[in-house]
Amino acid sequence: MSGGSTSGGSTESVPSFRELGLSAASLKALAHVKYETPSLIQAAFIPQALSGRDCIGQARTGTGKTASFCLPILEKIDSDHSAVQALVLTPTRELSAQVAAECEKLAYTRPVKLACCVGGKLINRQIEEIRRGAQIVIGTPGRVIDLQTRGVLVLNDLKIIVLDEADRMLDIGFRPDIEKILRRCPTERQTLLLSATLPGPVERLAQRYMQNPLRVDVSQNQVAVETVDQYYITVDRDRKLTTLARLLYEERPRQAIVFCRTKRGADSLHNRLSRRLPHVAAIHGDLAQNVRDRVMKQFRDGTVRLLIATDVVGRGIDVTGVSHIINYDVPEDCDDYVHRIGRTGRLSGEAGFAFTFITPEEGDQLTNIEIRINKLLPQYQFTDFEPVRSRPARPPASAVIPPSPPSSVVTSFAVEEDDWAIL
After folding, report:
1. Res. 252: pLDDT tops 80
2. What tens digit of pLDDT does each residue of 199-245 get?
3. pLDDT value of residue 328
4. 317-341: per-residue pLDDT in tens?
């Protein structure tokens, strides 16, 4: 792909928001939401996006990519013109809502109208928001195409389109929809693409639909989040549930997400956990949107402390209080591992923890993950508890032995209610 590239430097060289070329209105909004120092991706990406050229931003999950494109969008919007001027595509309904909330916060000083257009919500309300003069539309590809087909979403005045979490959108089969939308956009437009990873399909999409894009890469060739302590646990398949109960008992997470590979698996695990533990919920693509919204609200406000999730909705979970990620099922794709563990380690100054259950026959998948993140994961071992009957996948020399748990050792799923309490 042609076009330049730039890499982010150390945190010592990060400029202030005032040095990025933002207007006084944006600086006032940033002060209002108490954003003091730009992240690496914000510092590197915002000036390039403000120049008007097409840009590809690559940064690890949880590094502030949303503000990196929301601020340039807001700088370009003509608030006196009541036509759609910016379109943001995301892979999930939850992520669309999250982006819309961030954009609305950053639009504090501007009379800008937004519409969040996703499936599972009343389309008539979204139609009304667009007809009332929404200048920024944020949504999922399927609903955006629906609104275009109805003749409601007209993009003749579009100035900028953003493909957020592009790798995930292609992973879950949105490429035909994305291409259909891009073909309906004006040729003279700015295209911004943001992603944690840039696999071949994303590169090819950029080559076809972007004009000489500048690539801004602050991933620093380390796709695993620095602030996350990562471990694997060798476990027999029929001991996964007991092992999860013991892990929760020993770790006492403030808030945790447990990732399952399938919707059925998430429901099954939720049903079994919720009988024994309080504050547990599940979220996946088959749930009604109002249920998903309610679960996410409860998770964000701390009412739900243990969330069982699938990868499809995992990208829309951006909650700073998540202390632990548990991969109950090892992800099929190594990039999914990167995105899963990026849900934790987001509180300033606090590390996150990620644990991946590996059955004895899944050793190759663990190796693939380690190759992807360029790091060997240590094995986590319990005290007085064996999650696997067969020999461990690796020699115990690499094992990490945690501090001894309280004297009342739990070796089954008969967990007392206060075993989920914060120590």
Report:
1. yes
2. 888 999 999 999 999 999 887 645 555 678 999 999 999 999 999 99
3. 97
4. 677 788 999 999 998 888 788 888 8
Query: CB burial class (10 A; 0-12, 13-18, 19+) of residue 387?
Result: buried
**What structural domains and CATH numbers belong to the chain?**
5-217 (3.40.50.300), 228-420 (3.40.50.300)
> Would you state the torsion angle of the CA atoms of residues 288, 289, 295, 299, taken in this order, to the nearest 10 degrees?
150
List the structure tokens of 233. 């646990």
Integer Cα distance of 107 and 245 in angstroms = 44
Per DSSP bridges, beta strands 5-7 and 160-164 are unpaired
User: What distance in Å separates the CA atoms of residue 283 and residue 94, rounded to the nearest whole number?
Assistant: 11
Which class for 417: exposed (0-12), middle (13-18), buried (19 or more C-beta within 10 A)?
exposed
Residue 220, both tokens: 């620093």
Query: Measured between alpha carbons, how far is 7 from 215 in angstroms, rounded to an integer?
Result: 8
**Residue 349: partners with Cβ closer than 8 Å, 6 or more residues away:** none
Mean pLDDT score, 74-80:
95
pLDDT classification of 314: cutoffs 50, 70, 90:
low
Q: What is the pLDDT of residue 38?
A: 92
- Contacts within 8 Å (CB) and 24+ apart, 406-411: 409/383, 409/384, 409/385, 410/245, 410/246, 410/249, 411/242, 411/246, 411/384, 411/385
The structure's pTM equals: 0.72
- Name the DSSP class of 214: E
Using alpha carbons only, give the angle 327, 219, 56 rounded to the nearest 5 degrees.
110
Three-class SS state of 100: helix
* Site of tokens 């700015």: 190
What is 24-85 written as a DSSP string?
Answer: HHHHHHHHHTT--S--HHHHHHHHHHHTTS-EEEE--TTS-HHHHHHHHHHHH--TT--S--
What pLDDT sits at residue 5?
Answer: 61
Under 8 Å CB-to-CB from 101, ≥6 apart: which residues? none
Burial class (CB in 10 A: 0-12, 13-18, 19+), 144: buried
> Which residues have CB under 8 Å from 137's CB, separation 6+?
84, 86, 87, 88, 114, 115, 117, 130, 144, 153
β-strand partners of 194? 57, 164
Mean of the pLDDT values across residues 20-36?
94
